[in-house]
Amino acid sequence: MTFGLSGNEVVLYVQKYLDGPTDTRYTIVEEENLSLPRITFCTDPFYDVEAILWRKLKYDLKTVRVNPNDTLPTQEKILEDMSISAWQVTSQYRIGRSAIVFFQKNLNASGLSDISSTNLGDWSTTILLTRGGEYQLGACHVFTPKATLPKGKYEGLRIRVSGTQRIRRYSRNESGSWNPPLVYTVYFTDQVEKMTEFQGIPSTAECVVVNAEYEQQDIQLWPARIKTLSTRKSPCTHNPAYSHVQCMENCLLLSLKSSCVGPWLNASKKPLCRKADEYTRFIQEYEDLIETTNASRCNQRCLRRCQSVRFRPILETNNIGNSENMPSAWINFYFPSMEVEVLEEQWSYDILEMLGELGGSLGIMLGFSLLSIYDLLDVALFDIRSCGKKRVLPSH
């Protein structure tokens, strides 16, 4: 019987190492200051593209009969009629119990490039797209913070949202009604990531719904830091400034062959579609890019981030109605604790373990070999002694 380390066993050990099995370690760490997430306020509900673009738009555009000469509104007109201006959004940063106002008004409806910058953060406006049974657009105000916050309810970021901004809902004959959108959906994402214009709201975004009819609302922020490994099958990047959604958006925009775009693709630097037939062709190509191999090709090209932060919001409402003639709500964002959940992916079988198993198997093989040599020597000596005894002639 022979013992040894076969080639198949070596291949199995190496393949196990290359497959990179991992497990996740959960810990809690405490930090002195925490960075705020990117906070996006969107009018809720989102408004139908059908209403804004004056015509019926079904999910299957091949069944739609449109007049190719229908003229669509300009991007500035859409912005104006969606009341995307943030003229009644005021933000405050609390230090102790004294509030310092650092942003008020100044955002207007002239375009998506308007940004109000402060030493604590930037405000910008955008239009986001959601996809379901119908395409819908939402007017959003985005706050990208630059500051960190200590712990405490009175050490947070306070933002006042108005419940009186009016949205004009278009019909085919351009007549509209004015309704106050008293509800906002507030999304929270890592500061590096953003709401992508091409694909809409990222799947990692957490959200709460804020009703501007209530005077005071508190939102607790519970952060979790995700650390993943870069594996052969799923590589990732450690670049802290890298944005996966931005990479995906750039990749998809490069694949877009249409000469014009919808009102939410401001980053494309292409003109807005002005004719119904142009818009129909654009939507068909847009759907193909999102739902076919082009998106998967971009997914392969765009690495994920090895480290990210997710925020779990908890909304607390005092249920006190707003007594002002122009309803608004003060929203207080704060960290109730400095504890951060850390989910860290680790190798469950690394190169040291592979070498250990190979060495162990090799050691067992060598052990059996030494034992075999001892037995062989014992047998050989026994044979030599036996042969010597046979050569001795018997004495008479």
Helical proportion, percent range: 25-40%
| CATH architecture descriptor text of the largest domain | Sandwich
CATH superfamily of the largest domain: Acid-sensing ion channels like domains
CATH fold title of the largest domain? Acid-sensing ion channels like fold
Q: Helices and strands, in N-to-C order?
A: HEEEEHHEEEEEEEEEEEEEHHHEEEEH
Q: Sheet bearing the most strands, described?
A: 8 strands, mixed
The chain-level mean pLDDT equals: 66
Domain module count? 2
* Rg over CA atoms: 33 Å
Structural class: alpha+beta
The stretches of 5 or more residues where confidence is low (pLDDT under 50) are: 50-65, 83-90, 93-114, 165-181
Q: What is the helix tally?
A: 7
How large is the share of residues in beta strands?
Answer: 25-35%
What does this structure look like?
Keywords: Ion channel, Ion transport, Membrane, Sodium, Sodium channel, Sodium transport, Transmembrane, Transmembrane helix, Transport. This protein is of the alpha+beta class. It has two domains: 7-21 and 351-380, no CATH class; 22-347, Acid-sensing ion channels like fold (Sandwich). Helix content is 26%, strand content 32%. It is built from seven helices and 21 strands. The strands form five sheets. Strands 1, 5, 6, 11, 16, 19, 20 and 21 form an eight-stranded mixed β-sheet that branches. Strands 3, 4, 7, 8, 9, 14 and 15 form a seven-stranded antiparallel β-sheet that branches. Strands 2-10 form a two-stranded antiparallel ribbon. Helix 4 crosses helix 6 (293-301). The chain is flat.
